[in-house]
Structure prediction request, 181 residues.
Amino acid sequence: MRNKGTLLKELYTNISTTGAITFSSKPLVDKMLSYADFKGVKTIVELGGGDGSITAGIVDKMEKDAILLVFEVNEYFCKEMEKMYPQTNIQIINDSAANIDKYLNGEKAELILSSLPFSLIDKPTRKEICEKSRDNLALDGKFIQICYSYLLKYQFKNYFKDIQTHFTLKNFPPAFVMVCN
Prediction:
């Protein structure tokens, strides 16, 4: 992204929607993406594009004919990411992740990668995002979430059969990566 200072100001100004005190570190992004197999994957969704740090990792790993839908509610972050990713197979969407179904056109995502701040999202919206993520995930697909509270695992159990939890200290603050099927 262009100006890290402006991005951080936007991050702190809108902490209720960004839900972070800093952007995801490269080691955290690498750990998250290590649980995703991009081979043969045609439809990828990212929930919470932020500064594009996870997006960059996805773009590096996705196949050339895959499509990536990036959901971000912050308009400034969307405009910055649109400059970074002008490719036709990458769609930056300034909308809630609760509307994922409106953009998939009946397709199912093989991978949904999320850094949404679920702890800060109101309960009805959280429920809707989880339901729509589950319902729009391919049968053998994965929903992979970065989070800072282990307790979110119990929430995800309401929507996904299998959840593997991984912890990393290589981020500030330390984080969990939850891999859900």
Notes: The chain has one domain: 27-180.
